[in-house]
Amino acid sequence: MSYTYWIDGKFQEKENVSLSPLTHTFHYGLGVFEGVRSYKSVSGNVNIFRLKEHTDRLFESAKIVGIDIDYSYEELFEAQKEVIKRSNLGDAYIRPLIYIGSERLGLDIEGIDRHAMVTCWEWPSYFGAEALEAGIDVMVSSFTRQFPNSLMTKSKICGGYVNGIMAHDHAKKNGFQEAILLDTNGFVAEGSGQNIFIVKDKKLMTPELTCCLNGITRRTVIEIAKDNGIEVLERSFTRDELYTADELFFCGTAVEITPIRSVDRINIGSGKRGEVTNLIQSTYLKTVRGEESKYQDWLAEV
């Protein structure tokens, strides 16, 4: 399949894209990105889910790390739709990326050249379709989620995902599908790249935004839960509360709503997708495909 990308204001076929091996972001990790999904609706049209919120956060992330974006909000917004259209994709993943510097290394970035790209590809469910029902097995990682004083935690910084990658890889090598990271105080933070929710006594709990990302899917889950009369608490909770939860799930653009059936080989609840998780997951998946009239304003038609 041939994909069309948007690179610094121009559309290019994937095969024709080249970048300098001295691109600064490759070497030092200073860049920001978003993960966005498009879905083919039941009526046949293609929509991007919460494109405005993702584009807002892209600009906020760039501001946080001090990189100016040389393109307007509207240009980045439309480029994300256009790469899907030109690549003739339905269910796909979109990756806007703001990066810096070719032909210049060193830590000084004053006056460095800035770039923007939007790529896309066909990407089905992150853990496989069966995981959406059966759930996944995870472990609590020895890697710690960065604290706000160590790295800006409210932005999606390229280099900020290194510890998540290492935690995920360590979990896979130990026979698990994913990792859960704690913060520096020992409280649950998030997955390697996902927010996490606990269901206990019909209430929904998620870590407060001390050091975890303010996920767009996280916000979506909270709104869906409240609309269905489910109480939502944002508070710190501990590793042992994972073990005694009635239900657990990850959420994120890539993983959507993925149940967790065990943590550290301890079954969670009945060891399969629970009632509350099922309600939120089914509502979410209907919403992204345009089947929920209540949330139509979350969809941007391609």
Automatic annotation (TrEMBL):
The cofactors named for this UniProt entry are:
pyridoxal 5'-phosphate
Keyword check for Metal-binding: no
Keyword list (alphabetical) reads: Amino-acid biosynthesis, Aminotransferase, Branched-chain amino acid biosynthesis, Folate biosynthesis, Pyridoxal phosphate, Transferase
Q: Can the keyword Amino-acid biosynthesis be found in this entry's annotation?
A: yes
UniProt GO molecular function: 4-amino-4-deoxychorismate lyase activity; L-isoleucine-2-oxoglutarate transaminase activity; L-leucine-2-oxoglutarate transaminase activity; L-valine-2-oxoglutarate transaminase activity
InterPro entries xrefs:
Aminotrans_IV, Aminotrans_IV_CS, Aminotransferase-like, B_amino_transI, BCAT-like_C, BCAT-like_N, BCAT_family, Class-IV_PLP-Dep_Aminotrnsfr
| A Pfam family annotated for this UniProt entry | Aminotran_4
What pathway does the UniProt record associate with this protein? Amino-acid biosynthesis; L-valine biosynthesis; L-valine from pyruvate: step 4/4; Amino-acid biosynthesis; L-isoleucine biosynthesis; L-isoleucine from 2-oxobutanoate: step 4/4; Amino-acid biosynthesis; L-leucine biosynthesis; L-leucine from 3-methyl-2-oxobutanoate: step 4/4; Cofactor biosynthesis; tetrahydrofolate biosynthesis; 4-aminobenzoate from chorismate: step 2/2
| One example of a Gene Ontology biological process annotation | isoleucine biosynthetic process
State its Enzyme Commission number(s).
Answer: 2.6.1.42
Q: Which reaction does it catalyse?
A: 4-amino-4-deoxychorismate = 4-aminobenzoate + pyruvate + H(+); L-isoleucine + 2-oxoglutarate = (S)-3-methyl-2-oxopentanoate + L-glutamate; L-valine + 2-oxoglutarate = 3-methyl-2-oxobutanoate + L-glutamate; L-leucine + 2-oxoglutarate = 4-methyl-2-oxopentanoate + L-glutamate
Q: What does this protein do?
A: Acts on leucine, isoleucine and valine. Involved in the biosynthesis of p-aminobenzoate (PABA), a precursor of tetrahydrofolate. Converts 4-amino-4-deoxychorismate into 4-aminobenzoate (PABA) and pyruvate.
User: Member of which family?
Assistant: Belongs to the class-IV pyridoxal-phosphate-dependent aminotransferase family.
Q: What is this protein called?
A: Branched-chain-amino-acid aminotransferase
- The organism is SAR86 cluster bacterium
Gene for this protein?
Answer: ilvE
